[in-house]
Amino acid sequence: MHISSALNLIRVKLSFLVCLTLAANAAQSLAAQPAGATPNRAPLQPNAFNLLPLTSVKPRGWLLHQLQLQANGLSGHVDEFWPDLGSNSGWLGGTGESWERGPYFLDGLVPLAYLTGDERLIAKAKKWVDWTLANPQADGWIGPARNTDWWPNYVMLKVLTQYEEATGDPRVIPLMGKYFAFQAQHLSERPLKEWAIYRWHDEVLSILWLYNRTGDQSLLELARKLQVQGHNWQAQFADYPFKDKMDKSQISLATHGVNNAMGMKAGAVWWLISGAPQDRVSPDQAVAALDRFHGQPAGVFAADEHMAGRDPTQGTELCTVVEEMFSLEMDMSILGEPSLGDRLERIAYNALPGTFTPDMWGHQFDQQANQVISSLANRRWTINFADSNIFGLEPNYGCCTANLHQGWPKFVAHLWMGTPDHGLAAVAYGPSEVSSAVASGTPVSIREETDYPFRETVTLTVETARPVKFPLALRIPAWASGATVAVNGAALSGVETGQFYRVEREWQSGDRVELRFPMHIVNSHGYNNSLAVERGPLVYSLKIGESWYKIKQTGPAADWEVYPTTPWNYALVIGKDNNPNAFEVTETPVGNQPFSPEGSPVEIQVKARRLPEWQIVDDSAGPLPTSPVTSKQPVETISLIPYGAAKLRITAFPYTSD
Ligand SMILES: [Zn+2]
Prior knowledge:
Distance between the termini: 63 Å
CATH topology of the domain at 417-516: Immunoglobulin-like
Bound molecules: zinc ion
CATH architecture of the domain at 417-516: Sandwich
Low-confidence stretches: 1-32
Number of strands: 25
Shape: globular
Number of helices: 18
Strand content: 15-25%
Structural class: alpha+beta
Helix content: 25-40%
């Protein structure tokens, strides 16, 4: 027997035992073989790619370590000392916080626990989920009795679907069915209000999840009722009305950043039910509108916490980052557009890590692309407070403290999806292993070995009990010109960027697919004709010396200000021909904290000149000079590191041609 096959068997046996122990009170039937995807049931439209059950994709390599950092940081401990997630939470039967924070926490904790297999976290997650499963009201209502808002339950339903996939707990499906029946009965007299109006499609995801398992037609009726009462996001994105930074008098729930991030999946989700061609509008339309009016170099849009324009000193809320990622993951499943994977990676590998401390114990509420001081000071936010860009436990407001946990684990869970013709699709890249049933129900696993996004190569190794024919769809990023795909050393032809490249053959154990995505340095133009330096999925920022000052300690978590110790006001010297040879790339091994200035696995040297007139204004980098600029200062060599590693940074650079 192949050594890795033997290891796989041991792994399957171990996880079998773990599941048995954990769900001893749940009479679940555990298949010894990995389950495949659940396709959409008629009359729903088919997904481009079907979601695989949670735990089908496991992190490996640096990505496993990143999830372990998260588990050992705030995500694994916040409930031990933050009252809103403490033992008095309404979601544990107490009299405390009874709205969105418990469900938000679990929406990340459940996938983090089951993807890392961390017993301590699994026990924590189970305690919360058990309370909801054991304490429904007689009429079907779930969660704290004192909550009367439909919205937090949307999140709890997402939690339950993930938990059911990981454990097979038989209590989940009947409880969801009863809750939806209750809602269908009462939605007319108790219509959606406020947040629930703008986030209706998040509940529809759970309704469709259940429909695909039970076929209960009344669920589709409920989804239609929600759509009628819900906000029309397709209309908003089709002709985007909020084109500038919002004045306080202009704000509404339609200008709210997190709502917009969630709304980016509304059109695709609704199309599954309506089937109307006019509803199948690409989320690219939403991405393009948000880029045009509020776009930021790390792939997100500015909203602090309402739409804030393109100035790179405006903020992007962490909830917006993780919700846009989740929307793109759902959009990818439904529509299968390769550009969605490019955008997902850009956010996951830049904006997400860039707003955490390297150890994932602290986070910001608002991150800035040009972030030269992180401190208690009133900045030019639309409505946020003075502590919004410090790193800590609960800057500005605690929603992000509760909601940040879903970013990494859901990204890992959605790296791979199932093709409708019983194959597998790599929709985003990162070190991982996918195990699934493919054609004829044959179980296979594919090990993805890579230091992507820090390196250009990805190696996939297939393990299968017997030779099996199935398609493998590989996303070729739009930026990867010259990309190559080889199977067992033989290069394949017809590889094109911005496409899914399909390899359909009879696969045998040990077959290897080697992908190479050349990471050319590209300058993209942004606000005031500034330049952002990109290389593959990573955006690069000026490495600024950082001095961290602790300003508060709460249990094991600290709040920090960060001050610059080196100059930041540089213009890039790029030469008249925009010549990328001016850049020199240095690679070092991927270490324990790749998203830290010291641990950055890639550094780019480039020529620059200081711009003395560009100074601090309102505790942020002053107005960005329009490029090209002129400077008589001497040419220096500066270092750029990945955006996610630079906690102070310039990302949108002015430039000079000489
Ligand atoms: Zn938030």
